[in-house]
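Morning, I've got a small favour to ask if you have a moment. I've dropped the whole record in just underneath, so have a look.
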Amino acid sequence: MRPIVAFCLRFPRLILLAALAVTAIGVFAAVNARYDVFPEFGQPTVVIETTVPSLAAEQVEGLVTTPVEEAVNGIPGLATLRSQSTTGLSVVDVVFDGDTDVYRDRQLVAERLAPMAGSLPDGATPVLAPLRSSTGDVLTVGLSSPTLSLMQLTEIARWTMRPALLSVPGVSDVVIFGARPGQLQVQFDPDRMIEAGISLDQLTAAARQASATLGAGLVETPNQQVVIRAYGQTLTPADLADSLVAQRGGRSIRLGDVAQVVRAPPPAFSGALVGPKPGVLVVISAQYGADLLGVTEALDRELAVLAPALKRDGVLLLPDALRPASFVLTALRHLRDSLVIGAALILAVLVLALRNWRTALVSFVAIPLSLLMAIVALDRLGFTLNTMSLGGLAIAIGEVVDDAVVDVENIHRRLRENRGRPDPRPPLRVVLEASLEVRGSIVFATLAVAIVFLPLLSLSGVAGRLFAPLGVAYIAAIGSSLVVALTITPALAWLLLGRAPLHPADPPLVARAKRGYGRLLAAVGRHPGLTLGSVAGLVLVSFASVPFMRTEFLPAFHERQFILHFETAPGTSLEAMLGIGERAARILQRMPEVATVVLHAGHADLSNEHAGTNKAEMDVTLTPAGGAEGAVLQARILAAVRGPPGVRWTANTFLVERIHETLSGQTAPVVITVFGPSLSGLDADAARIAATLQAIPGATGVSVAAPPGRPEVSVVLDRAALLQDGLTAGQVLGALRTSYAGDTVGRVYTGSRSFPIVVVLPPGLRADPAALGAVPLTTGTGGVVRLGALAHIQAEAGRDQILHAGGRRVQVVTVAVPDSEASAFVARARRVLPGIPLAPGDYVSIGGTATASGWARVELMLHSGLALAAIVALLVVALRDSRLVALLLVNVPLALIGGIAAVWIAGLSVSLGAAVGFVTVFGITLRNALMLLSHYRTLVHAERRPWSAETARAGAMDRVSPILITACVTALGLLPIALGRNLPGQEIQGPMAIVILGGLVSSTLLTLLVLPLLAIRFARVGGRKPVAAVRDRADIAACE
């Protein structure tokens, strides 16, 4: 360390050139860094989707979901399995431990699925969904038109927009909600088929033959090979209708005689509204780890290219129905403004306090240089610049400035003292000695503060992945600051202060502060018992109030985007859901705060939404200007849209919803999961739990995630009738599937586009459950029989969705509750849940962000205990005096009372962000106390002063200036963030800043008043020399 400082003083201009190079690299890294809302907080997850349109939920569970779960269960690194089986769709989420490579995880899953190729139902092929970032969708685009049909809009979205958007770097997938893809449908008429003696098998075979595309081979000539290109495929409904089915009595029966051939969409599983009108939503997802801002900007450019063509086609484009990048840009702008204002205030304080522009400049330069070096380190470590990492840089400003202020103030003071001596020493020697005088203490203080933040890096789960970047950024900033203090600060101080004129006295502001502090310290010294008793009383009152504080996982984010969910009874049609959504959209668009409203219901292929048609989601974007606070406006929106009974409404902000979904797979903060083998038993348990939780104060909405009661029509085959007519069960079920799910018999190719040819019942008959019995089948003797003669058909209640967790059946009860009250609600729920009777073999677990928050706090306390042990060991090495170590450890917790008072005064809930603020206060206090006690050791051992009350007061007077300057600089740097805590992007840093500001007050007072008093009464500064006091005269001589 000493050789480093000596080298920098010998070659100061070389060091400044290196600093300029580092600054350029840092600016380049900051400009080209990846920006995001949050760090990648989700665990590596591989989603397996299997589409089986003709199967009910229980069939999907048994035939698809359970085999897939059994195949991937036990895979290396597996954390948990979650799945949902819905009508026609199986979705299995394979969640891995946080430290696995997600691309290797996908390969392992694919290897497990490969042997299943022939064991699943026909047409059921498991597909790995594209990897997506934790924040999910990067952009949602709305398409509508007053002149085009939904089928035409779908064609534009599918064949024009989707390929173009998928080609944008960083895009993972493009999903279309509300799609109505065109099909060439052969809609057969059962009555006309019976009359003509045509069976469904015959009609299907005829349609397949009419649409066949076969290669005819080559014509070989002596000089050429000529390709035979045969045109026999039907391209229009009229061509297909003219195709032959059979001949009866010398008459040709065409497809058009027994069926209507039209272009029409298949049965819809998703719907969309753009505003209050039907439309198509194009939902674009970012790749895992992609740069959110970069991808959004690239998509904007691509949409700008597509916009003229869409306008010519009569398409109205809503390019930013949902745009998370807007929040990032707003957050970065607010944080930038806060930092710029804070930096200006810091510079003003430094100039006023030090009354020397050179000294202020040397101290100030350390801030941008240290932060830019930290950004380079974050970029090389693979971190994005997000609200958490930028927050870590913001709260590190105090330590960054302290490194420079302590060094520069000591150099300035020693140079001024040296010039007042009758025999002044060479200035270079003074600068080196002054820098080395505090260097050891600064190194130990920096290491101690870094250890304080290590528990953030060891948190598990979502909390760890969210807050680890903050801890890394903070440690990188103070580490960079230490490097700057060791190299650039001494070199710049030598160049600017070494031979510059210096005022012989303290600056007026510092002098007044010292005089006031001296009087206050003397007063405290005259009444030590009263002072210590008062402090002890404050400590008891403060810590006694801690259990009564509200807690939450994360504070509410002040986004301008809300997500409204509404849910009705299982089996509700898309038309009914869109009707409810249209009414709500019209209401919302009349609110002045609302800019845009879009809706999607149900699920689209390979989307990250797997809801049934009875569930819908509305994305509400607010205007940038003003309006009520988020929570108030959210309540107003919910109150406005609530309408007919039987519709359950909930609301979240975009980011909070993503965190909820990552933790539990649900969108609520409190999730009760019931495990058991029987669906009926699970339903009964969930109903009892929901009723009990609804009665607990704080619950604003309790619902069962997968309620029973979806209407179904059961078809039970009559085996005797099948035998009599010479039919097999497979033939009958195949005819049933063709009639309602459709049988794809070919494709029509027009250029690069293709459309399926499907044999299916007409929509009118598919909408009538009684028409099931009219489906015609060919008997073994060549006759025709209707399905009603071969089966018992009846209506009954079934299930829309079956949930699994860990490969076991579950039912989930979700509770909407304000995040600030979630922990208290969970505590009350834990008391009542044991008294609820459950079906035999069933059991309950509680999850969601509320429990994650509690576990994160427990982890933080446990790991902080280990960190404290490491700090004690470090302090023993630094101070080499058990009494001094004990004094320091007693003083540090006392400083937290200011942070506790700030929480109460500001009316904050203690989120993890506020908890990090307490950790920061602990580190600041530890640093100041260590610097003061180390200075006492220096006075005794280096300057040969006897340890006494006078020496203690003199040491405190020497340190009061850097301590006060650092406290003021830190406070003013964080003040804009604290005042802007309700601005978007400062929801986490704001509470942190408020806690730190409160802690700075108590920390500064206790370090300057209580610690000297305790040192006078209990310390015995003597014994071995401290590490910080050792001098290497050879280095000093080398400099000279």
